[in-house]
Amino acid sequence: MILDFDKMYNWILEFINFLSYEVRPLEKYDRFLKNFHLNFNANEKRMIIKFMNEDGIFNHTYNLTDFEKKLLKYNLNNLSEIENMSNYLPDEAKDLIEISEKIKSKKEEDNEKGYEKFIENFLDIKIFKLFGKNITLYSKKDVENSNILKRIIKLMTYRLKNEFNVINNLMYIFDMKFSKDNIALKLYGCLYVGALIFGCILYLFFNEIMIMWILFIFFIISEYINVLLKEKNFEWNKNNESSFLMFFLITVIYIYTMSFRFELVYQYMILNLMIFFKTIAISCLRYKRLKNFSKKVLDMFI
């Protein structure tokens, strides 16, 4: 079989230059990989992959993230005409093969399982479900490396700071970030702080439990808006952890108040139900964004 060395050399040179850029858009990845799959024969592909492994592209020589290396290895090696290349496949290859089969299935249930597996195994975010419904998201690594008490706390605070930072960096690399509405963010911040201070003053002067209700409802709405405005690019901020603190604040206030007004136990139960449903709503929004991010990446590499 005739090998076109000039064509191979030009593709490798252009691709290596592209990989050296700080920003590597998915669209350009798509162009290079389609060119690789469509314009080279089996022997040429084998030689290109061998060169890329020997040149250190899949190791530490180039500024590729581990996330990119795993998907890039899979994409270049997942070809029926290339034989005896198993030594170059990463450990995650079997997972990616299973994910690929599921997301290409005609069954919506299989598609969902494929995205969930990708989010868990490659973005390190697990989904806690109850009766088949997404309840909350939590860090796979944090929970696996913690004792029971820490696991419970981390489940309740659903902290995803490290995982969100990784995805935020990937969105920058893949040129997927959304523009920020800075004016809306500043107005929201002023409204949040002002209303919170005003509500606390009312509570101190009037000592009415209804003021607590007003503060609580405002808190739930403002946190949801916060997620809508500030998490488009998976940017983490400490407001995301405030539900757990709010739960304890409400518990302390109501336990003190219920000592002489027991009928408030029903209000306490309702408030905690509202926290529960708010957590589900925010988790569903986050999962939808994770799924959209995963779909764009998988559509390109798999």
Strands of the widest sheet, in order across it, are 1-2
Strand content: under 5%
Q: In terms of per-residue confidence, which ranges show pLDDT below 50 for 5 or more consecutive residues?
A: 79-88
> Helical region count?
13
The helix content, as a percent range, equals: 55-70%
Give the biggest beta sheet: 2 strands, antiparallel
The best one-word shape is: elongated
Description:
The chain crosses the membrane at residues 185-205, 211-229, 241-259, 265-285. Keywords: Membrane, Transmembrane, Transmembrane helix. It is a single chain. This protein is mainly α and 302 residues long. It has helices at residues 5-19, 26-39, 42-54, 66-77, 93-103, 108-122, 140-144, 148-157, 161-173, 182-206, 209-230, 242-258, 265-301; strands at residues 125-130, 133-139. A two-stranded antiparallel sheet has the order 1-2. Helix 2 (26-39) packs parallel to helix 13 (265-301), helix 10 (182-206) runs antiparallel to helix 11 and helix 11 runs parallel beside helix 13. The model is unreliable at 79-88 (pLDDT under 50).
